[in-house]
Amino acid sequence: MVLGPSTGLYADRAEMPSLTERDGVVHTTMPYRVDLVFVAGEKVVGVELKRGEDLVTSAHVHRLGRQLIVLGQTCDVVVLGISQFESIQEEVALELVAYQVMGVIVAMLPSTYMGQVAMLASIKPYLDGSRSVLAPFRWTDLDLRPRRTRVGWLLRDIPGVGDVLARRLLDRFGSVMVALGASEEEWRECGATRRAIEGRREALL
Asked: What pTM did the predictor assign?
């Protein structure tokens, strides 16, 4: 139900035992003891669940690697979900990095079963490719675009001139050069503040 009517979460009988179909979880006997499977878009997502202590033990005896290989051979997307995670040995941390390089998605999950279901539902758009992984970042918070390739970047270097004012100036005057040559009154008509007017004066000195 949380993941959608056509893409419910299918769990091995030993996983999430307290949840039922009313919670969106269908228990079945999984081949190869796969923990969880659900569909994201046109991709089948396989999930291996590990608690902190179990993660360390599985990594040391190389069981985790074998489990992830099985998922990789049977599913389109492989997720390693880790919960109740407090500390990790350097050796295990390096192993997790190696898995990520090979395409395994390492996800930190809540400790409760319902929290884990909700978290898997929330990352579905990223797993099916319908949402960019950069979507959560607002450009105003973290601008990943090269600054000096954006139209009007020179105007944005003036104190008091933000994206909105720079766009208004460019729309009205057509270029940075013409905008810089316009009068202060014309800038005010575009919504320039006193700070932007003073910044323009200093820029033209």
From this structure: 0.62
